[in-house]
Design goal:
By secondary structure, this protein is mostly helical. Helix content is 68%, strand content 0%.
């Protein structure tokens, strides 16, 4: 001990009192012992948790299953069970997980019974409490749980996260806002101020597919949104649900300067078969990006007429291979005769063989 005191005094000469030095050393020792004790306790709890987990999972599965097939349902008994048995986050998390996983494979009356059991065990309130966490992942997991269990009451709070800084949390909130809506499932779009990436758009579209037709709004209502990706999403939704009442507004968006907006509008025009878009598409063709032009050319067999032949012949002579091939395909659908088309396209002998090969390719392939 004297050696420690001398060593301590060498490093901290200002502490010239042996009693003060001894008190400092003892305090440091007790602090180290406290830290070690904490880690020992935590390690012991972890070992106990790992050893008990399989048993608790089995008990949870047995209880949930038995309640689903119990003809005499008692909410009071269920709440009493939760009070006595779900006494920690560890236990509640296991029951939440088992209910959520089981719900994915159920439908009809059993699914409804499981949702009621979930509520009776106070697990809906437990999941809602996670919204007060500072951890975005905890909030995102709570949204996943509540959306799977179709707890519609949570929607009002979930909408608060549709613009969260974390992309995972906000996309889960957006999808859940659609899935949990009783009416106006897309009202949250008015609050969106961050871009929706392709994955988010796909997930929202998938959620929309589960809605009843009467729940669907007119998606052109958001065609003037300040966030371009919201407009792109709404064009996709209008296209998917074939909202022909939005046709004129979709046609207008074909000329939008934003790359993705105009591309999706042209795709929608083509897939919805909006034939009166032809005039605008031909007028703006020369200023379109290449992918946009190809979409227009793919649409020409459906909307082309005699007035389009010169336009297509020009592309068949001057465009790159892909453009020329699509132009010839459209011309063939309009003219209908291979030999006549060759004569129409012939400008000099050097081009004749190449043009004939491209026409044969079109004839031999139903798609390009």
């Amino acid at each position: 001990m004297d050696g420690l005191v001398q060593l301590f005094h060498a490093f901290f000469p200002a502490l010239d009192s042996d009693v003060l030095i001894m008190n400092t050393l003892l305090s440091a020792l007790f602090f180290i012992i406290a830290i070690l004790s904490y880690y020992v306790i935590m390690a012991t709890r972890l070992i106990k948790w790992l050893s008990n987990k399989p048993k608790v999972i089995k008990e949870a599965i047995n209880y949930i299953t038995s309640e689903l097939y119990n003809e005499e349902i008692s909410k009071a008994a269920r709440k009493d069970y939760a009070k006595k048995n779900l006494t920690s986050r560890f236990l509640k998390d296991i029951y939440v997980y088992q209910c959520v996983e089981l719900h994915k494979s159920l439908s009809g009356e059993l699914a409804q019974d499981l949702k009621q059991l979930f509520a009776d065990l106070n697990l809906t309130e437990y999941a809602m409490d996670h919204f007060h966490s500072y951890d975005w992942a905890t909030k995102a997991n709570a949204i996943t749980v509540l959306a799977e269990m179709e707890y519609k009451v949570a929607r009002e709070e979930i909408i608060l996260f549709v613009n969260h800084y974390n992309i995972t949390l906000r996309y889960k909130a957006q999808v859940a806002a659609v899935a949990l809506a009783e009416k106006e499932p897309f009202d949250f779009l008015q609050y969106i101020n961050k871009p929706l990436n392709e994955w988010q758009q796909l997930q929202i579209l998938n959620a929309a597919m589960n809605l009843k037709t009467e729940q669907l709004p007119l998606f052109s209502n958001w065609f003037q949104h300040k966030e371009p990706t919201v407009i792109v999403l709404c064009i996709k939704l209008a296209n998917h649900f074939k909202q022909y009442e939005a046709s004129e507004k979709i046609i207008e968006k074909c000329a939008d300067p934003h790359y993705d907006i105009s591309l999706q509008a042209i795709i929608a025009v083509k897939q919805m078969g909006i034939y009166n878009a032809k005039g605008l598409l031909l007028d703006i063709y020369s200023i379109l990006y290449t992918p946009h032009q190809l979409e227009v050319l793919e649409f020409m067999p459906s909307i082309g007429d005699e007035d389009s032949i010169d336009f297509l012949k020009n592309i068949a002579h001057t465009g790159d291979f892909r453009h020329r091939l699509l132009a010839i395909q459209a011309l063939l659908s309009l003219i209908g005769n291979k030999e006549e088309l060759i004569l129409e396209l012939k400008s000099d002998d050097s081009e004749l063989e190449e043009q004939q090969l491209m026409i044969n390719h079109v004839l031999d392939n139903s798609t390009i």
